[in-house]
Design brief:
Layout (H helix, E strand, L loop, with lengths): L1 E4 L5 H14 L6 H13 L4 E6 L9 E10 L4 E11 L8 H15 L4 E4 L6 H9 L19
Parallel strand pairs: 4-5
Antiparallel strand pairs: 1-2, 2-3, 3-4
Helix pairs in contact: 1-2
Length: 152
């Protein structure tokens, strides 16, 4: 398995799995809007996306993760937000998520980030175990809140 950083040339490969990820979380597919969204993030360098590919096939995507940059005013350093991670159904239990997270962790270290943050559903026990296995721990210092804006 190879982990590579996505570029605009990977949009045809990435978009279908990104659409399945959105559907997994109960969203409508919107393939064209999904592609435009990803294309903007990559073109504007607003996110970093890692792709997991089989060693012998450049046309099959096993999984992806997308991170957004943020900053900590208190530590005066960068923070990476792991916003999206998804593994294709037929690639599960092959440590794809682990490899993607290790690539993200390496990138965070290389960019001198103070931390990576991730949120997941409270009942997503599989994700909890994966995150904890690479060193994430539940935040006991801060409670998160959400303020929906224009969420029609």
């Amino acid at each position: 398995m190879r982990i590579i950083q996505a570029s605009s040339e990977h949009l045809d490969l990435l978009t279908p799995l990104f659409v399945r990820y959105r559907e997994f979380y109960g969203e409508l597919a919107f393939p064209e809007a999904s592609r435009r969204f990803l294309e903007k993030r990559l073109r504007r360098k607003e996110s970093v996306i890692y792709l997991a590919l089989p060693d012998d096939d450049d046309h099959k995507l096993l999984g992806f993760c997308q991170l957004y940059p943020s900053y900590s005013s208190l530590s005066l350093k960068r923070v990476w937000i792991l916003n999206d991670i998804f593994v294709a159904e037929d690639a599960r239990r092959q440590l794809v998520a682990d490899r993607l997270l290790q690539a993200a962790k390496k990138m965070a270290k290389e960019t001198n980030a103070v931390r990576m943050r991730v949120s997941t559903k409270i009942d997503n026990d599989v994700a909890h175990k994966v995150y904890e296995s690479i060193g994430f721990h539940e935040d006991s210092e801060f409670k998160s809140y959400v303020l929906p804006i224009n969420s029609d």
